[in-house]
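ARCHIVE CARD
CATEGORY: sequence design from structure
SOURCE FIELD: tokenized fold
FIELD CONTENT:
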């Protein structure tokens, strides 16, 4: 069974991890586990209090297929944890590293985005908040997740394609991933079709 480690921080974004955690285990047979800098309560941006039982130091021993850095208000502040070595080592050893929204800053600070196609909230967001980031030539303006060289990035508005890319990185079957995308985009497709009929 493939494993996905979700890193939560104080002020984590509620919508950015929910599809991974909510469907990964129940529908796709993935082993999902949460990690934080300290065990105990972590409060989300929306006010949800999560009880996290595993520290970041436990990730390597657990040996996940994918490490996901969930975005949140902490990543562009001085309180952001330094997880660069964790992410670099995991990637060097053949693992997949993923970041969404503010979580992409952790990947940028680790140097993982300097030579790999990637996206985020926007290029200026990375340049302003990630010391050592020099990957602007590799930046892709995208409303969806971007995957390259076992590195997955997404803006905060793309939790669906981010989830699909993370599941693909974890080895989920292509048919199951297409089913996920189709199911979660059905509402928007129907809205567009209705708008076209009315115009």
């Amino acid at each position: 069974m493939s494993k996905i480690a979700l890193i939560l921080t104080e002020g984590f974004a509620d919508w950015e991890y929910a599809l991974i955690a909510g469907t990964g285990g129940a529908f796709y047979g993935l082993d999902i586990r949460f990690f934080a800098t300290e065990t105990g309560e972590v409060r989300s941006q929306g006010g949800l209090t999560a009880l996290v039982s595993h520290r970041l130091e436990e990730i390597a021993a657990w040996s996940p297929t994918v490490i996901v850095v969930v975005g949140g208000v902490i990543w562009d502040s001085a309180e952001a944890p330094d997880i660069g070595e964790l992410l670099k080592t995991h990637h060097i050893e053949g693992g997949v590293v993923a970041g969404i929204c503010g979580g992409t800053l952790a990947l940028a600070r680790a140097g993982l985005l300097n030579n790999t196609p990637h996206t985020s909230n926007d290029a200026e967001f990375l340049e302003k908040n990630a010391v050592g980031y020099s990957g602007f030539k590799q930046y892709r303006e995208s409303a969806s997740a971007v995957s390259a060289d076992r590195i997955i990035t997404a803006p905060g508005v793309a939790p669906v394609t981010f989830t699909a890319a993370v599941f693909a990185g974890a080895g989920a079957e292509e048919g199951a991933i297409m089913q996920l995308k189709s199911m979660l985009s059905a509402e928007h497709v129907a809205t567009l079709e209705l708008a076209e009929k009315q115009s």
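CARD ANNOTATION: The longest strand covers residues 3-7. DSSP finds seven helices and eight strands in the chain.
SHELF: design records, drawer C
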